[in-house]
Amino acid sequence: SSLRTGPLSGTYRRLEMQLGGSLYSCVNVHTQEDLVCKVVGREANSLLTAHYRLDCHPHVNSLHEVLLGDKLMYLVFPPSHGDLHSHVRHRKRLREPEARRLFRQMAETVRACHEQGIVLRDLKLRKFVFADPHRSELKLETLEDAVLLKDPEDDILQDKRGCPAYVSPEILRSHARYSGRAADMWSLGVILYTMLVGRYPFNDSEHASLFAKISRGHFVMPECLSSRAKCLIRSLLRRDPCERLTADDVLLHPWLTREERYSPPAHHQDQLVPDCVPL
């Protein structure tokens, strides 16, 4: 990626905001290449640093170019082929072979972030987009909302950020200090459950009721899932953050390392994943 000083309008024409996201569609006025653009303040240096640390990772969206304006910074990325949230909504739920292939890519991405001292905080289905029209390769769209740890060994955070359906129980406690990495792993568990079941493990139209359900940590595990999938979900959605798997642990789990032939019962009803509004 290149770094240039100057306004966006000199090279790109900004179009409409992408549906359900925080990126603008844009087009290079010289090459007519379609791209997407994230507009942030000039002070967002940690976001830029995080992207540069992961710039070569196959499942993190690479920066095409960075433009520095007087007060704003424009991060230009390659376009995508839709996001994972919309894909799951359209398909109702994913079969285990497809979910396994996609979830492995997400777990590898989270592991790379954690190794680089980056906590994602707002980890959810919509953050992952497809890099190819066949929808087989995922990329983390941006590192917006991620935090760059000053000390990679100390991931204790205090601020509360995230989509309500994905937040972990410890974040909901008042004045709580929590492990950022462990909170990411809870969100990864919510993602896996939602991909396989077609609904969130904790769901309620009222935030207070939703947060009460999350705090209790009780959710329904459908019989349609394989035993290994159930095991992995339970190992991620543990109320005690110390008991949750790490990203390294997830990638060694039998559900990901051993292919399993499993046919779900025919009576399982399709669900619909609702939209998720931020906290």
Automatic annotation (TrEMBL):
GO molecular function, one term: protein kinase activity
InterPro entries listed in its UniProt record: Kinase-like_dom_sf, Prot_kinase_dom, Tribbles/Ser_Thr_kinase_40
Domain Protein kinase: 1-256
GO terms, biological process: positive regulation of proteasomal ubiquitin-dependent protein catabolic process
Signal peptide positions on this chain: none
GO terms under cellular component: nucleus
Record-linked PANTHER family: SER/THR PROTEIN KINASE-TRB, TRIBBLES
Similarity comment: Belongs to the protein kinase superfamily. CAMK Ser/Thr protein kinase family. Tribbles subfamily.
Name assigned to this protein: Protein kinase domain-containing protein
Organism: Cuerna arida
